[in-house]
Amino acid sequence: MSLIIAKFGGTSIGNGKRIRKAAQSVVKEYMKGNKIVVVVSAINRTTDELLEIVEEATNNTITEKQLAEVVSMGEMTSARIFSSALESLGVKSEYIDPYKSEWPIITDSNLLDAKVDLKTTIKKSKILLKLLDQGIIPVVCGFLGRDKHGYITTLGRGGSDITAFLLGRCLNADEVIIVTDVGGVMSTDPNKLQEAKKLDKISVEEMRDLATHGAQVLHPHALKYKVPEIKAKIIGFEHGDLSAPGTEIIGPSKEEQLKTVTFNSEPLAVLAVVGEEILNKPGILAKLTSTLSKKNINIIGVSTGKNSITLFIRKEDAQEAHKLLHDVVVEDENLSSLSLGRDIAMITISSPEFIDTPGIISEITEPLREHNLNIVEISSSQTSVVIFVDWDDGKKAYELVRGVLK
After folding, report:
1. Which of the 8 DSSP states describes residue 100?
2. What kind of fold does domain 3-253 have according to CATH?
3. Of 232, 260, 268, 281, which one's alpha carbon is 20 to 30 angstroms from that of 86?
4. Counting runs of H as helices and runs of E as strands, what totals does the chain give?
5. SS3 for 301?
6. Helix (H) or strand (E) holding 25
């Protein structure tokens, strides 16, 4: 027997026929002896239509409390219809919305972009296990929360994904299944390239970066609640089968779940190639990187400017790389000069919480400024920040950054 969290997006329950098909897929899994918690989004475009009506009716004078209550109606309607569809198929079901005592998701009081109170939510979620033990299929409103005053809150756009993975973590589920209008994660947007292929597997880190940079298949914030022990996949609603193959989301590793700071044990070398407006000259970066690649010289980091490209490589490769790139500079009329700079230390700071932490870069770099430590280069993604400093400053910078994260 497995405990499954099945989340249905707005398109997958876009009309009555789709809702019944989705309900049938849940009942099919239930009849195998599995326990299932259903999470539903608002029926396709319902939230957008409600927002349009509110804007026209109120001239945007509506309060946050009123707006949260209005937009919650989409998910509350979906939950009621889906629960009714399940019961029409002969199983017990109960819809769970923020007005009910069984409501599990507790947040702060930022009504329209609430943050989850994880400790309280874990405790409150246990009531769903009692319903499951009674053979009841709970249908939970996605996207919504409730603060300590009893006010309805919302988790932001895509919040139903957050709800699904959050409940998966709180209930120690075996699997979280995201049912969408696509058959899984694609190699690119199939609306833009017909050659797009479905991926069988993708890591949490890859999925988070993909979602952050525009892919609509999953909300990146949801993945911070994904733990390695819980399986997860994305499938298309057209199958009408929760056991259908899709794209499996792998991980994260234990290291990815923690705040970590690493410091390279050996210095890096920095190579700077300059040329007038080379950022606007096609193929320059490719020529530099492919030259090093042919000699198996790995590039640790890259920085680009209007008139320069900076490459960070292992110090042991520096002399060979310097000679190889000098040949490129001499041959290419768009390039004028090359320098081999000082030894560099690289400090990498990682945490899944960074995606929800405004100002994290300034928080990390401020202690370095206070101690007059110069940052040679900095780069960042949704879950990590990489800082390059002079090698002589490396250990001091490492200790200062570690102090910030304690």
Report:
1. S
2. Carbamate kinase (3.40.1160)
3. 232
4. 10, 17
5. strand
6. helix 16-30
Give the number of C-alpha atoms closer than 13 A to the C-alpha of residue 324, restricted to the C-beta side: 17
Integer Rg of the chain from CA: 26
Dihedral sign computed on CA atoms, order 28, 29, 34, 40: negative
d(CA 41, CA 91): 21
Q: Is the dihedral of CA 292, 293, 296, 297 positive or negative?
A: positive
Question: Can you give the pTM of this predicted structure?
Answer: 0.81
* φ and ψ at residue 269, rounded to 5 degrees: -105, 150
- Dist CA 8 CA 27 (whole Å): 14
Distance of alpha carbon 19 from alpha carbon 161, whole angstroms: 18
Q: Which amino acid makes up residue 396?
A: K
Tens-digit pLDDT profile for residues 31-80: 999 999 999 999 998 999 999 999 999 998 999 999 999 999 999 999 99
- State the pLDDT at residue 399: 93
**Residue 257's pLDDT band (cuts 50, 70, 90):** low
**For residues 152 and 387, what is the distance between their CA atoms, to the nearest angstrom?**
41
Helix (H) or strand (E) segment spanning residue 145? strand 144-146
SS3 content of the chain, % helix, strand, coil (to 5): 40, 25, 35
- Helix (H), strand (E) at residue 123: helix 118-133
Residue ranges of domains in the chain: 3-253, 260-405
Residue 7 in contact with residue 163, Cβ under 8 Å?
Answer: yes
What contacts 53, CB < 8 A, 6 or more positions away?
Answer: none
φ, ψ (nearest 5 deg) of residue 280: -95, 5
DSSP assigned state of 200: S
How far is the C-alpha of 12 from the C-alpha of 42, rounded, in Å? 10
CATH level 3 topology of 260-405 = VC0802-like (3.30.2130)
Q: How many residues does the chain have?
A: 406
